[in-house]
Amino acid sequence: MEKIDKLDKIASVLGEKKKIALICHINPDGDTVGSALALYTALNKLNKKADVFSSDELSPKLKYLPFSDRFNISREIKYDLAIAVDCGDKGRLGVMSEIFDAADTKMCIDHHKSNTLGSDYSYIDPSISSTAEIIYSVLKKINGLTFDRDIATLLYAGMLTDSGCFTYPATTAQTLKIAAELHACGIDAADIAYNIFKKKTKNAFELEHRVLSRTKFFAENRIGIAVFFLKDFEETGTGQEDTEGLVNSIQSIDSVTAAVAVTEIDALHYRVSIRTKEPADASDIAAVFGGGGHRLAAGCRVGGCLEDVLEKIVKAAKDRLD
Ligand SMILES: [Mn+2]
Questions:
Q1: Whole-structure pTM value
Q2: In CATH, what number does 202-321 get?
Q3: How far is the CA of 308 from the centre of ligand 1 (A)?
Q4: Strand 258-266 to strand 269-276: parallel, antiparallel, or no bridges (unpaired)?
Q5: CATH fold of 2-198, please?
Q6: Residue 32 Cα, ligand 1 centroid: separation in angstroms?
Q7: Cα of 167 to ligand 1 centre, how many Å?
Q8: What is the pLDDT of residues 243-285, one digit of tens each?
Q9: Which residue, of 16, 97, 155, 163, is most buried by count of CB atoms within 10 Å of its CB?
Q10: How far is the CA of 26 from the centre of ligand 1 (A)?
């Protein structure tokens, strides 16, 4: 009951405000972009001024999404309302935190377990598989709004991204019901799945092949770690956006309960992406290094030389698997 009241409140605040900024998290994924653009499309249909912002450029696959060319067009700083979409903390807003800070009213719509972003209104539910699924529920509360093919495509893409094509445990009967309703709006589900989830360049395939072949295993093969070096990107002509998905390949190994992808930022700094199987909690492992995320998918940054970084990660993971 309380959740429903809160959704009503979020929807009514959206109804009151006229000039609204929607801000995605850094390294934007299909959930933050799909969610922000679905809101953007809906608010435009309601004749409001909405702008979408992202600190980082969208990866090529996300440019498949309708209105993905609308990011960072406005030079405005001052908004009636700024909404942090799918973003658990201030740092994740990147340089766009300036717009969030300057807004008269701040709102946060998110599903990260470790959300520390302060705001006037928030709807945070870590039990929901994607922020897009929450946005669906918010938009359903707005009178007079009909879902068109674009809104449905954007929400579906967000849901697909964060539910791992409806395979992760947070996928519920409600998730699938919403997906069915969006499907009925005339979306091309196969095309969305291919473009957002499966499609990769041959260079990205070569990067994956090279990095996967060096995967190291620890703790009786329960922990698998692969490292992306800067030279791997240089030599294969790939970038950060091509690292997605590799950790899931390690995760699919039957003995593995914690799969880790480590990406070199420079010789002494590494970005770490962690996937776990129940009952291991990825966000607990990431929290050791000041990171966060979800129960089964989390991330952090770890400093030091690679050897030390790997040792620290293995220890942190092992302590939480036993
Ligand atoms: Mn998300």
A1: 0.89
A2: 3.10.310.30
A3: 30
A4: antiparallel
A5: inorganic pyrophosphatase (n-terminal core) (3.90.1640)
A6: 6
A7: 15
A8: 988 999 999 999 999 999 999 999 999 999 999 999 999 999 9
A9: 155
A10: 12
